[in-house]
Amino acid sequence: MPKATKTDNKKKYELTEEGKLRLESELNELKTVKREEIITAIKEARAQGDLSENADYDAARNEQARIEKRITEIEDILKNFTLIKANDDKDVVNIGKTVGVKFLNKNNQIKEFQLVGTIEANPLEGKISIESPIGKAIIRNKVGDVVSVKSETGNSFNVEIVSIN
């Protein structure tokens, strides 16, 4: 389950407009397409006979439970979210911005990251959370700033902010 902040015993999630639209699309797909597919799969598995030894039936029921859990999770997020917007200051690292950082080590590798809320984070797509070690270190800094990042393992390294878009 995604990390969230608690306010009045309700979880509050932070989403960008893009993240909100993506969740709404996923919810629609689950409710209109995936639910129907799984109902059909369950009917077909029931038609095979004895349910106690029917692997197809068990698999379909497990998939149905997974889909229903995800629907509930998305509905909860969409009921309890705060829309976050990028700061209009083009010179300062903030949520929604794409930031180029140079890792100040032997090879000075440069990587670009988009800063997003925790739910939208996906490092494989270049989207990192503002709650991640790098996100926390670079936020509210400017191009040319060198900041120290302390990883979750306790190691520290430095990065230089080379671009903000």
Walk me through what this model shows:
The structure is a single chain. This protein is 37% helix and 25% strand. It contains 3 helices and 8 strands; from the N terminus they run E-E-H-H-E-E-E-E-H-E-E. The chain has a 5-stranded mixed beta sheet with strand order 6-5-4-8-7. A 3-stranded mixed beta sheet has the order 1-2-3. Helix 1 packs antiparallel against helix 2 (55-79). The longest helix has 30 residues, at 17-46. The two termini are 30 Å apart. The model has no long low-confidence stretch (mean pLDDT 88).
- What overall geometry do the principal axes of the alpha carbons give? elongated
Order of helices and strands: EEHHEEEEHEE
Rounded mean pLDDT is 88
Number of strands: 8
CATH-defined fold name of the largest domain:
Helix Hairpins
Cα distance, first to last residue? 30 Å
Question: Key terms for this structure?
Answer:
single chain, 165 residues, 2 domains, five-stranded mixed beta sheet, three-stranded mixed beta sheet, 3 helices, elongated
Short description:
The chain is an alpha/beta fold and 165 residues long. The chain has helices at 17-46, 55-79, 133-138, and strands at residues 5-7, 10-15, 81-83, 98-103, 110-116, 127-129, 146-150, 156-164.
